[in-house]
From TrEMBL:
<keyword id="KW-0472">Membrane</keyword>
<feature type="transmembrane region" description="Helical">
    <location>
        <begin position="128"/>
        <end position="146"/>
    </location>
</feature>
<keyword id="KW-1133">Transmembrane helix</keyword>
<feature type="transmembrane region" description="Helical">
    <location>
        <begin position="98"/>
        <end position="122"/>
    </location>
</feature>
<feature type="transmembrane region" description="Helical">
    <location>
        <begin position="199"/>
        <end position="227"/>
    </location>
</feature>
<feature type="transmembrane region" description="Helical">
    <location>
        <begin position="59"/>
        <end position="78"/>
    </location>
</feature>
<keyword id="KW-0812">Transmembrane</keyword>
<protein>
    <recommendedName>
        <fullName>ABC transporter permease</fullName>
    </recommendedName>
</protein>
<feature type="transmembrane region" description="Helical">
    <location>
        <begin position="158"/>
        <end position="179"/>
    </location>
</feature>
<feature type="transmembrane region" description="Helical">
    <location>
        <begin position="12"/>
        <end position="39"/>
    </location>
</feature>
Length: 239
């Protein structure tokens, strides 16, 4: 059961997230309406204006998940300060934010699907589950990154924010360079629906339909663990 303080945390998240979503929707709808009205004033084509209005739901579908992910990326420290001021423990803060994350992800996805129906039919259940899984994974990842950055002061945020992408690019380039220099005999070959040769068992694992789901589950466990770990080490800063 959800206790009172967990409800306080979740309610605080919903209030701030809802406010951010309303502001975003207001700007998007307002900007597109002004643009389309200016177009109508110049070309006097009512049909074109009405067709253009159908593009608003498509824009909202793209931006609502971004707002959701951005909130959990940018607000961990703000929510932590609020929790300390209200006598809420780090553990309760993490639990309340996780509950809010799950519920808000479901809500945003349902709204997105309803808006999507304005310009295309719903997909099958498999497509729906995969899309929701992608949204949930993205938001959980953003929360883990946000919690990690909340441990750093401004100086280290800049250093890590620049350094990590640079390191990732360098590692990617090294991996690609290494693959280019591998000889043909060092890699397995694909024959009769499976791989044979060196390290064939590793490549054959990728052919199993279960493998992506296992990797996804392991990734989620790691991300949730890191989120909890970073959350439990949050401290008030002077900057």
């Amino acid at each position: 059961m959800i206790n009172t303080k967990q409800k306080m945390v979740a309610s605080n998240v919903f209030y701030r997230l809802g406010l951010a979503a309303l502001i975003t929707v207001g700007w998007i709808v307002g900007f597109e309406l002004v643009t389309y009205l200016l177009g109508l004033a110049f070309n006097h084509n009512l049909t074109s204006f009405l067709v253009s209005l159908q593009g608003i739901p498509e824009t909202l579908v793209a931006f609502l998940p971004i707002v959701l992910a951005a909130y959990f990326l940018m607000t961990p420290y703000v929510d932590f300060k609020w929790a300390i001021q209200n006598g809420i423990s780090r553990s309760t803060l993490w639990q309340g934010r996780l509950i809010a994350l799950l519920l808000s992800s479901v809500l945003v996805y349902l709204v997105d699907e309803l808006l999507t129906m304005a310009y295309r039919p719903l997909g099958n259940w498999r497509e729906i589950l995969i899309n929701f899984g992608g949204l949930l994974t993205t938001v959980l990842t953003c929360q883990a990154i946000g919690n990690g950055f909340s441990l750093l002061n401004r100086k280290w945020k800049v250093i890590v924010g620049i350094g990590l992408p640079v390191m990732a690019i360098i590692l990617l380039m090294m991996m690609l360079s290494g693959l280019e220099h591998l000889s043909t005999g060092m890699l397995p070959t694909y024959q009769d629906d499976h791989f044979v040769g060196p390290l064939a068992w590793v490549f054959n694992l990728t052919l199993s339909p279960v493998t992506p789901w296992i990797i996804w589950a392991i990734y989620l466990v790691i991300v949730v663990y890191l989120t909890k770990l970073f959350n439990d080490h949050l401290q008030l800063r002077r900057d």
